[in-house]
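Researcher: Quick test of sequence recovery. Tokens follow.
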């Protein structure tokens, strides 16, 4: 009723009287719903009717802080402190101003002062915990959040923060110990069981993790996070059908997500139910067309099934979303080789190199396609680039030898063939695979035979 009356007053320009509690409720409501302009009006009218109210002045400080007017907030706080020097809220607000200014150590000092005056220490400990987290002092942050839990063991926000602090310093075993102690006091807390399972999962203790997630979903049958983590754990244990069943539960409990569809598809793929996998990957990309992971999974399945036309269609979808992904360009090139589109394959491998994916496999694949196309000089140029990044590799030297023999530059060819044999004589069979004319060359055969004799 107070809210309706206040808004009616604003519309009619009439002035109504509100008691102090009503003003506080109106202002807090507007702050909670983000209507700061109305909160500001309410504070102004409230102080006109109750000019001595410290609580309204604190709300005015909050509004100053929200608007970034920190100097005005500080000046008003000094005035309040002169009236009530032992008011904990003065130091809490001062800490907020310090925190907003990036001075977290000063904020902590003010919060420590607030602790000496407040009866509600939990809120102050929570604020101190956050300030310590800003400083990456996770030990002190955790100790403050633990104090909150000692007073109110159902403060799940504090519980999450305690576990987060353990996570940040990778003290997973300590987290497990703490959570087990907490569960002894509050055994029906699904949040604690869920967090316990996550710690076991990180340590790859998947059976223990599964037990914890089981308890979480038994306590709360609608706990989506519990089912998701349970499904992921079952995947790690190789129990893919069980994982699928749990992912399906999450789809029943809430709106479907592309993430769940993808994970279900991957599980079906693991148990070689490829049609089901394709079906769920398609559901994933329908749910989120910008999910490039869904498109690449479809690409790879069709590639493995040798359906290269469909693989080409889906890889183009993935590349439209992320054209700077060298893995996608490599797959694009491989598909085009299968389709005998060699120029496109060259483009794909060149894109990989342009994205600084200079794995030897990329160079070799590009060189072999260029050689097949008769672009021998381009292939040699790529080989020399490869040689700068990959020293003393037989794969490179044998190809250089073969290409120079093809170009009738037998001296260069001989030099590279000798270098190749010194690295790995047995690998010379690659010449027969990729340059059979060179392999049959009498000079090449003599060099191979002489080197073999020298080895004996």
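Model:
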């Amino acid at each position: 009723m107070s809210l309706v009356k206040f808004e009616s007053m604003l519309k009619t320009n009439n002035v109504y009287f509100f008691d102090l509690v009503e003003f506080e409720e109106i202002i807090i409501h507007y702050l909670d719903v983000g209507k700061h302009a109305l909160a500001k009006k309410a504070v102004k009218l409230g102080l006109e009717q109750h000019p001595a109210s410290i609580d309204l002045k604190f709300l005015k400080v909050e509004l100053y802080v929200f608007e970034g007017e920190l100097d005005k907030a500080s000046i008003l706080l000094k005035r309040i402190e002169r009236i009530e020097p032992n008011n904990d809220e003065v130091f809490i607000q001062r800490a907020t101003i310090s925190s907003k200014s990036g001075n977290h150590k000063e904020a902590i000092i003010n919060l420590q002062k607030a602790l000496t005056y407040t009866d509600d220490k939990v809120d102050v400990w929570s604020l101190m915990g956050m300030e310590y987290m800003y400083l990456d002092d996770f030990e002190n942050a955790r100790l403050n959040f633990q104090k909150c839990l000692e007073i109110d063991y159902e403060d799940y926000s504090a519980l999450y923060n305690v576990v987060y602090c353990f996570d940040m310093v990778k003290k997973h075993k300590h987290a497990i110990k703490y959570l087990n102690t907490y569960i002894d006091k509050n055994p029906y807390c699904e949040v604690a069981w869920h967090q316990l399972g996550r710690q076991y999962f990180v340590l790859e203790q998947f059976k223990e993790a599964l037990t914890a997630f089981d308890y979480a979903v038994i306590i709360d049958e609608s706990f989506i996070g519990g089912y998701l983590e349970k499904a992921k754990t079952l995947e790690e244990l190789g129990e893919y059908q069980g994982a699928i069943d749990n992912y399906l539960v999450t789809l029943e409990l809430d709106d479907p997500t592309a993430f769940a569809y993808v994970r279900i598809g991957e599980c079906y793929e693991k148990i070689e139910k490829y049609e089901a996998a394709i079906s769920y990957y398609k559901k994933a990309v329908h749910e989120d067309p910008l999910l490039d992971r869904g498109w690449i999974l479809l690409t790879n399945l069709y590639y493995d099934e040798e359906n290269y036309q469909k693989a080409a269609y889906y890889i183009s979808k993935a590349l439209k979303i992320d054209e700077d992904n060298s893995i996608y360009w490599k797959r694009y090139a491989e598909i085009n080789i299968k389709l005998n589109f060699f120029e496109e394959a060259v483009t794909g491998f060149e894109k990989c190199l342009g994205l600084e994916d200079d794995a030897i496999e990329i160079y070799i694949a590009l060189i072999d396609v260029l050689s097949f196309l008769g672009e021998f000089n381009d292939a040699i140029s790529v080989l020399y680039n490869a040689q700068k990044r990959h020293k003393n590799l037989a794969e490179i030297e044998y190809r250089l030898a073969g290409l120079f023999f093809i170009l009738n530059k037998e001296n260069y060819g001989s030099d590279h063939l000798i270098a190749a044999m010194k690295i790995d004589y047995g690998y010379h069979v690659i010449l027969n695979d990729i340059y059979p004319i060179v392999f049959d060359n009498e000079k090449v055969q003599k060099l191979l035979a002489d080197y073999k004799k020298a080895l004996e």
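The first helix runs from residue 2 to 12.
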